[in-house]
Design a protein that fits this description.
CATH superfamily: Gcn5-related N-acetyltransferase (GNAT)
CATH topology: Aminopeptidase
Organism: Hymenobacter wooponensis
Keywords: Acyltransferase, Transferase
Shape: globular
Number of domains: 1
Largest sheet: 7 strands, mixed
InterPro entries: Acyl_CoA_acyltransferase, Bact_Acetyltransf, GNAT_dom
Radius of gyration: 15 Å
Strand content: 25-35%
Distance between the termini: 24 Å
CATH architecture: 3-Layer(aba) Sandwich
Order of helices and strands: EHHEHEEEHEHEEE
Helix content: 25-40%
CATH class: Alpha Beta
Number of helices: 5
Strand order of the largest sheet: 1-3-4-5-6-9-7
Structural class: alpha+beta
GO molecular function: acyltransferase activity, transferring groups other than amino-acyl groups
Protein name: GNAT family N-acetyltransferase
């Protein structure tokens, strides 16, 4: 990556930027510019301000945000302590910055955060039919646990176009 980046915890003032970033990375036409789109699997939004506020203020939860030298939000990731795991979710990189190594830098920040709070592994959930995303995480040290979770039924997080389930993956630190 050839630009400087600041990664720091988000605050409630960052909620509008985070909502816009996450939705642009996963849903709608803009998301199709990047490889992390879920637009072919789900209609509707990925998140909203209420969801992000709940994640930010929930016990053990935080959102790490990455801003470029101009202060523009270009990436974010949700983390939550679930000892011994640190759950990592909603890893989002703006479609214009995908493929630049930003996701790897965010994951390195998550690993550092996990160590600081005493977690010994990372835990993630990935839609089972997202083969390219599963492969990306596996290349970065995650392994499938064999566990699955039902896909959320709350339509404010998306409307599935087909039956979906989530796979759990873990990375030992």
């Amino acid at each position: 990556m050839d630009f400087s980046l600041t990664i720091a915890p988000a605050t409630e003032a960052d909620i509008p930027d985070i909502v816009a970033l996450v939705n642009s990375a996963y849903r709608g036409d803009v998301s199709r510019q990047g490889w992390t789109t879920e637009a072919h699997l789900l209609d509707g939004q990925r998140t909203d301000a209420e969801d992000i506020r709940d994640l930010l203020t929930g016990p053990g939860g935080a959102i790490l945000q990455a801003r470029n030298e101009a202060g523009q939000l270009v990436g974010s990731v949700y983390v939550k302590e679930q000892q011994p795991d640190l759950y990592m979710g909603m890893l989002s990189v703006s479609p214009a910055h995908q493929g630049t190594g930003l996701g790897k830098r965010l994951m390195a920040a998550v690993e550092e955060h996990a160590r600081q709070v005493g977690c010994t592994s990372l835990l993630i959930s990935v839609i089972s039919v997202r083969d390219e995303l599963l492969a990306w995480y596996e290349r970065h040290g995650f392994r499938r646990t064999g566990e699955t979770i039902a896909f959320p039924t709350d339509t404010r997080f998306g409307i599935p176009k087909q039956p979906l389930k989530l796979l759990l993956l873990r990375k030992e630190l």
